[in-house]
Write a structure and sequence with these properties.
Rossmann fold; 7-stranded mixed sheet; two-stranded antiparallel ribbon; alpha/beta; globular; 9 strands
Length: 179
């Protein structure tokens, strides 16, 4: 159950054909770990990964639009087979709009989950804007839904299940137990 959802959040979720996510603070807890050789380390939650797989099996396209590029994030996205992985993006809105055009999707048929100010332009443009509870206040205020779980701790899974439930396909997606 989300911590907050606007009255039209479920109706918006029914229209979603593409779900996009920020990386740091959404798929991770937002903290940055650096090894002795300068490599960035990130922690991901398995529940979030399975939620993304549920979306893919249900026919909802998935991807990441992130301002940072990091081998750990790239490896996780590859492991999850997310088809749309955009890293090192300075202008998230421009990349979002170009992806919508490439996929022939209206922005209203897209969801974006974010946590910080660089995410706001996409959240204002997409059909369903989602925030984690540890997002900055401006992002939470813009969201149609705020998850109960924090970034990197099951928030993505919570959103995935909300979306699939709204579309009436959660139980069939869960019944398909492929990992």
């Amino acid at each position: 159950m989300p911590a907050f959802a606007t009255p039209d959040a479920e109706a918006r979720a029914r229209q979603v054909r593409l779900a996009l996510f920020d990386m740091d603070g959404v798929l991770t807890d937002g903290r940055l770990y650096f090894g002795a050789d300068g490599e960035a380390l990130k922690v991901f939650h398995t529940l979030d990964g399975h939620g993304l797989k549920l979306l893919a099996r249900a026919g909802v396209a998935t991807g990441v639009i992130s301002g940072r590029a990091c081998p750990a994030a790239t490896a996780r996205v590859k492991e999850l087979r997310l088809p749309h992985a955009l890293f090192g993006v300075e202008d998230k809105l421009a990349r979002f709009e170009s992806l919508c055009a490439e996929l022939k999707l209206e922005p209203s048929h897209c969801a974006f989950m974010g946590d910080d100010l660089p995410d706001l332009p996409v959240m204002r443009r997409c059909g369903l804007a989602v925030a984690v509870p540890n997002a900055v206040a401006d992002v939470r205020a813009c969201a149609h839904m705020v998850t109960s779980a924090s970034g990197g701790n099951g928030a993505v899974r919570e959103f995935c299940e909300f979306l699939l439930r709204a579309q009436g396909i959660l139980e069939p997606a869960k019944a398909d137990t492929r990992a």
